[in-house]
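TL;DR need structure tokens for one chain.
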Amino acid sequence: MAEANWYVVHTYSGYENKVKVDIEKTIENRSLQDQILEVSVPMQSVVEIKNGVEKAVDKKMFPGYVLIHMVMNDDTWYVVRNTRGVTGFVGPGSKPVPLTEEEMAGLGFMGKGLVVGFEVGDLVSVVSGAWRDTVGAIKSINESKKTATISVEMFGRETPVELAFTELKKL
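>> reply
TL;DR here they are.
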């Protein structure tokens, strides 16, 4: 059996979730679970401020694209390519090009068992950068970006600062 790789599929903008659901239904109907392993619309959580109110919202990391972990063959190509809303695979001509492991790791999408030595609420010290020697409490952790948001006191107010894991040391 061929090896499964990650492929990028271009969709009409706004149709990403519909394409994901349609492909998942087709996988179930045609019993392709062993060939199309995962369909994903990568999301990232962002904070929007509207009318002075902060609100956590999930945004698509790549609007107009869906990532699919699959074994490429004529059947799977046909199923994906002929799904309503799909305009084609990303790659030259009609030949889909799989993403490399480096590209997937760069997207922060493949979990290679990252172990984070921090937890929300931990006191940490900043060891490098502009915030060196600053002490703060971790408010949130973003494993995909490998960052932590800490709360530091600036001008008498608590201020959130996002820093890379490599810049922090647990106290």
